[in-house]
Amino acid sequence: MSEMKIAIPLHGKMSSRVFHQPLFRERLKSSGFEPFFFLSPQYFRAFEFDPNRYFELKTGDYDEYFSQHAFLQQLRLLRRFVVVTETTDLRFRETVEEKLFHSRAWGVAATLIYIDVLRRIPKLGWLLSVVERNLYVPNVHRPQLREIGVGCVLTPGMGYYGFWNEGNFALEAKRLGLPVFSAVTNYDAIVNKGYPGFLPSCLAVWSRQMADEAMKLFGLPARKIEVTGPIQYDRFLLPLPMSREIFLRSIGLDPRLKTIFFAGGVNVTRYFEMYNFLVERAETVRRKEFNVVIRPYPHAKLLVSPGWKVLEKLFRAQGVYISHPGSIDAEDRSNEYKQDLWLDDSVDELSYLLRYSDVMVNYFSTISLEAAICDLPVIHLGYDDYSFGHRYGITSEFQQRQTHNRRKLRLAASKVARNEGELIAFVDRYLSDRTLDRERRREYAVSECGELDGNAGSRVVEMIRSRL
């Protein structure tokens, strides 16, 4: 029996780490699929790939096509905000805030009224999607898909905000009559990314909760949804080759001490706060010594800022371990790209940190879900010590108002420190007993991810195979 050829477009960091990981590629092949990857230019041009299996995703051609059609730009703008949730409402206000500094007052007012009125029209998202996929389908990769003889396509997301390129690729495949399957790769995608640009043959979601949201917000029929779990978290269920002692020694930390793990965002001020809190005033946090791990957010807004460059030197001088997810500003980003594409199939450092740390301080980001899967206690920063001059979108208040961050199970599985006194108390509590709130963490992780058995990738492959 010949293999079924499946095309997979990969544009962003998250989708690359999901669909190009060795475990998922192995599961595709063992189920009779021959994967063909279309990689973003920065990935494709960084390494030598098999020219018969890897192709460049022509994002530049898609961007040029988009820039030539003003009506298409309006369709996508409305699609981003037409799914009305607390999160999209906040994102809409954030967009208006940005326009205040770049547009005339009348233009801002017109945009506000135009979008806010139209996005509340029932079924407008469906109409926008129909118009877009009938009027605007670029012809960029169709000749390649024909030449390869592709039998089906798997995309991350469904062409909603942040997944425009994958959506264009899917529309081209659909124009050829190919079945297109999709899998959600972000846990806030349904409530945060707007209305999809196309409806797939079947959508792989993480949990029953996510399936209900897709039916309610997108109008997706239940027969086109499969609960599979998140592929990217299968790795957290695998055994680690290094013990806690060996791993901590390998990164220069003392395995006899407890470990505090801070995973921050793009706001550099937070890292200054943590330097003051965990280094300069460590004795106020806990009388005993402890290890400190800082993982900066992999975004240029943080990593190329002068503040971070100063802070990184200060942290290292005090024996703090910096866990770099990638060197954003480096001329040679090959190490970062190797991580994204899993060219090195060894266990990633984050898996160790989530299993072997004793408590994590965070501010409502995705990594706190990963911590719950790995049974790591989490404390969220629910206050802003310093907000002067900051855009509202990076404040703790903004994060706490989003739909996915207000869920009862999420809040029950972690602690929200409303001030520094509470932060100190919660840190001390979890360092004394890491098992506290274990059942709540498990309940929250299952609510978001469904079955946590390490077989999400197998279920996605079976979903595709059973519907062809």
Helices and strands, with pairings:
Layout: E1 4-10, H1 13-19, H2 22-30, E2 33-39, H3 41-44, E3 54-56, H4 59-67, H5 70-81, H6 86-99, H7 105-118, H8 124-135, H9 142-148, E4 152-156, H10 164-175, E5 180-183, H11 189-192, E6 202-205, H12 208-218, E7 225-227, H13 244-250, E8 258-263, H14 268-280, H15 282-285, E9 290-295, H16 300-303, H17 306-317, E10 321-322, H18 334-341, H19 349-356, E11 359-362, H20 367-373, E12 378-381, H21 396-400, H22 408-412, E13 415-417, H23 420-432, H24 438-449, H25 456-467
Parallel strand pairs: 1-2, 1-4, 2-3, 4-5, 5-6, 6-7, 8-9, 8-11, 9-10, 11-12, 12-13
Helix pairs in contact: 5-8, 14-17, 20-24
Structure description:
With 468 residues, the protein is α/β, with parallel strands linked by helices. The protein folds into three domains: 4-65 and 126-229 and 453-467, Rossmann fold, CATH 3.40.50; 86-118; 238-449, Glycogen Phosphorylase B (Rossmann fold, 3-Layer(aba) Sandwich), CATH 3.40.50.2000. It is built from 25 helices and 13 strands. The strands form two sheets. Strands 3-2-1-4-5-6-7 form a seven-stranded parallel sheet, with helices on both faces. A six-stranded parallel sheet has the order 10-9-8-11-12-13, sandwiched between helices. Strand 6 (202-205), helix 12 and strand 7 (225-227) form a beta-alpha-beta unit. The chain is globular and about 65 Å long. The chain starts with a strand and ends with a helix. The relative contact order is 0.12.
